[in-house]
Every structure is written in structure tokens, then in C-alpha cells.
Amino acid sequence: MSGAAAGSDKRSRRARRSGLTGRRAEWLAILWLTAKGYRLLERRFGGKGGEIDLVMKRGRTVAFVEVKARSSLDEALLAITPEKRRLVERRVRQWLARNPWAGDHHLRADAVFLAPWRRPRHVPAAFALVL
User: Fold this and answer.
1) What distance in Å separates the CA atoms of residue 77 and residue 1, rounded to the nearest whole number?
2) Are the CB atoms for 107 and 64 separated by under 8 Å?
3) Is the dihedral angle over the CA atoms 66, 67, 73, 76 positive or is it negative?
4) What does the pLDDT read at residue 20?
5) Among 65, 42, 56, residue whose Cα is nearest residue 125
6) Is the pTM for the entire model greater than 0.85?
7) CA-to-CA dists, residue 43 to 11, 46, 128, angstroms
8) Could you write out the DSSP letters of every residue in 65-107?
9) Do strands 121-127 and 106-114 pair parallel, antiparallel, or not at all (unpaired)?
10) Are 67 and 115 in contact (CB under 8 A)?
């Protein structure tokens, strides 16, 4: 196998593992938030260029949730960059265009941070939405 092919194979294995970790983290976050009274409206809204991991609802609040799984909670907290925030805001506007009923609800950008052997950490209003 050539060096380029071996490198490509390594990246694809890493990408698959990362995707699996992300899906598991999302399911853990869904379970955690459901136990707190939230209802899942949508999972992985968006597509190329980024997505909102979860759209959850509780009462009159619609939460757009970023799920971050890292080796430590501190690393997870740092994973929502300004660029990621802008992307989420763009996707929220798209989601609201398709779901006009939510316009009169309280809209919030939440996060769930996960790390091995730690309880998930739900942060309501992890960052302000500028719509």
C-alpha cells in the first residue's frame, strides 16, 4: 500500500471512530435532556457546512444544542468556537424558516459537554444567539 493510501485509510478510520463517538455522545445527551423534561424535535439539522446537533423543546423554550465529547470537560468547554457559534446561528435561522410556529418561543443555544467517567454537563444558554 502506498504512503498516501495508508494515510488516507488512517484518516478514514479516525473519521469513522470520531463519527461513532459523536453519535454516541448525541444519544447520551438526548437521554440526559429527556430525563430533564426536554423533547427531541430534530437531530442533526443542517448538512454540508455544519449542523445543529439537537433541537429540543421544553415548555415554551426551544433549545438548539451543541454536543461536545472530549477527553476532559475543560476541553469540551473550549470546543465551541466563535466560528461554530456563527454556523449555529445560520442554521437556527434556517430551522426557524421551516418551523415558523417556534418564532414566539424562547430560543436558546445550549450545550451538553461529555467526558469519560463524568456526568454530562448541560449548560443552558451556553452562548447568546444573535438572530
Assistant:
1) 39
2) yes
3) negative
4) 65
5) 65
6) no
7) 25, 9, 21
8) EEEEE-SSHHHHHTT--HHHHHHHHHHHHHHHHH-GGGGGSEE
9) antiparallel
10) no
Residue 57: what residue type?
Answer: K
Task: Say how far apart CA 67 and CA 79 lie, in whole Å.
Answer: 10
Q: Please, which pLDDT band fits residue 109 given cuts at 50, 70 and 90? A: very high
The yes or no reply on domain 3-127 and CATH 3.40.1350.10 is yes
Interval 93-119 mean pLDDT: 94
Domain locations along the chain: 3-127
- The pLDDT score that the predictor gives to residue 77 is 75
Q: What single letter denotes the amino acid at residue 74?
A: D
Position 1, amino acid: M
CA distance 112 to 121: 5
**DSSP H/E element including 11:** helix 3-35
Residue 16 confidence (pLDDT) above 80: no
Contact assessment for residue 100 and residue 93, using Cβ atoms and an 8 Å cutoff: no
* Residues 65-100: tens digit of each pLDDT: 999 988 887 777 788 889 989 999 999 999 999 999
